[in-house]
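Tip: read the tokens left to right.
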């Protein structure tokens, strides 16, 4: 995904640990998934990513986020700051448990290059993905190093021990599931094109949709998928197109020739 590549390109000189799609359970037994958890000697960054375009406005008074599309259509969502503040408290609670005094910094990052953040929020830093590197650099300048090498490893080990992948029961019948890549704006099935997928209803485009659709298939049904199942679930017309798409994804596979399982 775009955000993952941005971290790779950053090449930070300071020692750190980076967790993507970090899952843990809070003291009340509820599972949480944090898009990115960045642990350093200076701070812990708690990052939520949003892959939606258009104009974005935050309303702190009613705690909502409004997306205005190119045609003027407005979509209203719960503000992601609500979730980020919960995650901040969750991480701060874990740090307190092990006696570590390092700030947990929540941020919301928009990965779609066409996003325009018109009105921001006062509660959490919100910015486009292009500003991630400069934000991390400023945080290193803002917060002095409070953890030594051994303590940093201890914090990492604690969060690795806290990691608990959410296990879902796959009981959903296939006939009731909207197959393929689903538009994040209007919830319609998107159409495959050469450079990604596009919603025929609102025009939204995305390059991450296939990964998200495969993740949905994994959660609902099983960990593996055959070429034929991929073709059926993603709505791809040609089996040869399926083979090209799967090879570009770079995922592990088993088998050979026509009986190949991805």
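Filled-in amino acids:
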């Amino acid at each position: 995904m775009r955000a993952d590549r941005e971290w790779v390109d950053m090449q930070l000189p300071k020692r750190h640990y980076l967790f993507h799609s970090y899952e843990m359970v809070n003291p009340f037994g509820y599972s949480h998934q944090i898009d990115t958890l960045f642990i350093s000697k200076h701070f812990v960054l708690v990052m939520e990513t949003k892959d939606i375009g258009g104009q974005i406005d935050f309303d702190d008074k009613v705690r909502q986020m409004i997306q205005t599309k190119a045609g003027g259509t407005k979509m209203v969502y719960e503000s992601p700051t609500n979730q980020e503040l919960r995650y901040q408290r969750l991480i701060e609670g874990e740090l307190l448990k092990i006696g570590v005094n390092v700030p947990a910094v929540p941020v919301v990052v928009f990965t779609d290059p066409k996003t325009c953040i018109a009105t921001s929020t006062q509660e959490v830093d919100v910015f486009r993905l292009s500003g991630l590197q400069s934000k991390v650099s400023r945080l290193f300048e803002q917060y002095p190093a409070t953890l030594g090498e051994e303590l940093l490893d201890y914090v990492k080990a604690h969060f690795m021990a806290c990691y608990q992948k959410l296990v879902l029961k796959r009981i959903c019948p296939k006939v009731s599931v909207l197959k393929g890549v689903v538009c994040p704006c209007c919830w319609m099935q998107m159409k495959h094109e050469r450079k990604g997928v596009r919603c025929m209803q609102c025009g939204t485009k995305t390059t991450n949709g296939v990964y998200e659709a495969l993740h949905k298939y994994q959660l609902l049904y099983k960990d593996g998928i055959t070429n034929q199942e991929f073709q059926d679930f993603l709505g791809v017309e040609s089996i040869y197109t399926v083979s090209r798409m799967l090879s570009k994804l770079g995922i592990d596979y088993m088998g050979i020739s026509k009986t190949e399982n991805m």
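The two ends are 20 Å apart (CA to CA). Residues 2-162 form a domain with the Trna Endonuclease; Chain: A, domain 1 fold (CATH 3.40.1350).
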